[in-house]
# Entry
Amino acid sequence: MKLAALTLHEASERLRRREISSVELTEAVFERIDATDDRVRAYLTLGRDAALAQARQADLRLRQHEGATPLLGIPFALKDNFLAAGLRTTCASKILGDFMSPYDSTAAARLRAAGAVIIGKTNLDEFAMGSSTENSAFYPTRNPWNPERIPGGSSGGSAAAVAADQCIAALGTDTGGSIRQPAACCGVVGLKPTYGRVSRYGIIAFASSMDQVGPLTKDVRDACLVLQALAGHDPADSTCAPHPVPDYAEALSLGAQGVRVGVPREYFISGMQPAVEQAVRRAIHELADRGAIVEDISLPHTEYAVAVYYVVATAEASSNLARYDGMRFGRRAEAEDLTETYMISRDEGFGAEVKRRIMLGTYALSAGYYDAYYLKAQRVRALIQKDFDEAFKRCDVILTPTAPTTAFKIGEKIQDPLQMYLSDIDTISINLAGLPALSLPCGFDEAGMPIGLQIIGRHFDESAVLRIAHAYEQATEWHFRKPVIATSK
Amino acid sequence: MKISRSDVERVAVLARLRLTESETVDMTAQLDAILTYMEKLNEIDTTNVEPFSLAADRPKVYREDTVTNKPDQDGLLANAPDRDGSFFKVPKIIE
# Structure
């Protein structure tokens, strides 16, 4: 087996047994990138020399048996909205220009402390706004399973890099589905932890009441190992929760027996692709066969989630993106006066979707409209959260599709923002309620595109999510399938 | 119509965005479609519903108000579009 194709836990075992070195593994990953990334276009920035230096350090630690954590020597990709010292951070926007990360995000720092090797930064929808990675100011990323299809978004580069074996694992961010939906589109595992479980210090903010950091990996055990390294309080992020961090790996051996699984009828609606519904229903049967107790439930306010989300997320984005004014960093246009400088810098620096969301959010917050839009949306959001609170009195986890369809074609929805927003219909309620959720592969459609199963848990109960995900994964072989990518070498 | 062209022009100024003629036309139509979709929210009676709040169920964390980050003037100024020594250089604010 090619080294780049290893899972994190497989690679980690081989590193610790000294069968391979981190330098060999890192070089294998760069060879894979060189051979495939002109087709996939998952990366925006690579840091070869720094990565190989980190790999040599990791090998030294491995030789000295120092702090051999599971991440020691493992090549990671970061979505390009994470600051990582020594690498530029673009957020796939022109407005940041050649912004150099002045320091490490806490997530990057924790990876480094665990001995991980940061190999580069992956493509995304500009400022993480989108569901297809087509909103990147640089280029769209292509789905490794079919280059005419989107990889999902906004963490499309990270998902594609994991699926294409261009890294061992990756980090992404998820505000409305941006880890889970691309994971589903690319046939990998994506975990959005509970709001506040992982520090967001040094992550470029989009919608602060929902943004969360999480892993994209080749299997559930890998997601568990990465979460373990990232989770926990960070004094630098006041929204990062002080709750104790459990040993997540303990949950992996527990199986599905006796777990109460809720299946919300509102997630199985007309308009969903039949192959997706069939695959998700089969997955539910599979878990029932393994001893899970399946129950039909209702989340009655589900149909309002997209409307709530696009009020709240755009309002927060319009505020967060006010800092891009061309004064202290980023791109500054030449103009007559200060206001003109702001307006032209922002006009030239932001892409169409980012402008649309700033406009929508500014409108929703503007005098005379605040109550009708923002406050109304926050009231309905409370009802959506209450739906989940009620459901979790009766069940331990909730199972749904991750997206109503498999990956659509590049260009298919780019002219119709509302249709694009509706592709997040299965994931955004979870962000509105701040819950943890994971997507993992549960089949393929007639065109050979991967299908994602979403598992939702109670606040801070990532263990239950990982437990049921691992039980399903152990019973199936979807996660062993790999896309065939024409290589240039 | 949920939103008019003049609304779009007004909001663009608030958001400090200069929109071209074609952007203004497209934006008016697209925002109108999205805002019309958002009308769905009015189907729900929320008279006695408190707005969602993040702070409600989270323990508060206190810390000493001390400087913990290392000063890195050059690192931070390195990204400035224009600088003068240890200062950001910006356009004149008061005419």
